[in-house]
Design brief:
- Belongs to the UDP-glycosyltransferase family.
- GO terms for molecular function: UDP-glycosyltransferase activity.
- Keywords: Glycosyltransferase, Transferase.
- This is UDP-glycosyltransferases domain-containing protein.
- With 292 residues, this protein is α/β, with parallel strands linked by helices.
- The chain has two domains: 64 residues, no CATH class; 179 residues, Glycogen Phosphorylase B (Rossmann fold, 3-Layer(aba) Sandwich).
- Helices cover 45% and strands 11% of the residues.
- The strands form two sheets. The chain has a six-stranded parallel β-sheet with strand order 5-4-3-6-7-8, with helices on both faces.
- β4, α6 and β5 form a beta-alpha-beta unit.
- α5 crosses α10 and α10 packs across α11.
- It is globular and about 65 Å long.
Length: 292
């Protein structure tokens, strides 16, 4: 279930004639006119939703996921340094934080997140960008973090800050990464589950709240914040508690990690041979194309 507070401004203000509504109606109309739809998911993960879309559109839906790029060579500087920093830490001990390339937090949200991370005492990698309203290309200012936070975390080797690009797939697949604090865009979700890394969700808009609902039902995700980008509130105590629950030595964390590993094996099995779900999905799509 999606709460009203989780809807974006575009949806809340939609009247059927606005740009977002016009675009979505056009896209849905085009989907209804196609012969089939390819989706980047795994049948075992979303069977009931795949069946629902197929019934609604009255066309075959072919799941062919997870479609994940290979491990690209790290950049000459940031990428290599990140992996070397990860190598210094024990298995499953590092929290990776990224909200994707299109999202930023508000100033107060950045501050509370930083305080919560520090209170958790867990090492972390944070792909950090200027707050909303500031050009993402601008330099990050120390004033947006607690006093001396970045310097203190780096000196203690507890924090690695990335101001720009990060090799996300390489980070998630590294043995030292234990959890992913994410906005839950679909590509990030697939990369995390494919690497067996449980998710701490902070959705900010778009389809991200729907993604989180599915992940929570699966038992591989814990929410740290709800609401949309404008009204999502989080307190440092909640951040610290959720990080500890997901990464700590406790029953809830162990169950979460076990379920995530099960999903990882399902993902890897989807393309194991031609009899597996995603391989069969692609074969079914090609058969349909060749029949036209």
């Amino acid at each position: 279930m999606i709460h009203r507070s989780q809807l974006s401004k575009n949806l809340l203000m939609a009247d059927g004639t606005d740009l977002a509504s016009t675009f979505l109606k056009r896209e849905f109309s085009l989907c209804c006119k196609t012969d089939s739809v390819l989706v980047n998911t795994v049948e075992e993960l979303e069977q009931k939703w795949i069946d629902l879309v197929a019934k609604t559109l009255q066309i075959p839906i072919f799941p062919i996921g997870p479609l994940i790029g290979g491990l690209n060579p790290a950049s000459p500087s940031a990428g290599i340094e990140i992996i070397e920093w990860l190598d210094l830490h024990p298995p499953a001990s590092v929290l990776y934080i990224s909200f994707g390339s299109q999202n930023s937090l508000q100033k107060n949200q950045i501050l509370e997140l930083a305080l919560g991370i520090e209170a958790s005492k867990r090492p972390f990698i944070w792909v950090i960008r200027p707050p909303t309203g500031i050009d993402v290309k601008d330099d990050f200012r120390d004033e947006w973090l607690p006093d001396g936070f970045e310097k203190r975390m780096e000196e203690e080797k507890r924090g690695f800050f990335v101001h720009g690009w990060a090799p996300q797939l390489a980070v998630l697949s590294h043995k030292s990464t234990g959890a992913f604090l994410s906005h839950c865009g679909w590509n990030s979700v697939l990369e995390s589950l494919n690497s067996g890394v449980p998710i701490i969700s902070w959705p900010l808009g778009g389809e991200q709240h729907f993604n989180v609902t599915i992940l929570v039902e699966m038992g591989v995700c814990v929410q740290v914040a709800r609401g949309n980008m404008e009204n999502s509130e989080v307190k440092k105590e909640v951040v610290a508690d959720v990080v500890e629950m997901v990464m700590g030595d406790n029953d809830e964390g162990r169950v979460l990690r076990e379920k995530t590993k099960i999903i990882m094996e399902i993902f890897k099995g989807a393309w194991k041979d031609k009899s597996c779900s995603s391989a069969k999905g692609l074969a079914g799509f090609l058969k349909l194309v060749n029949s036209k």
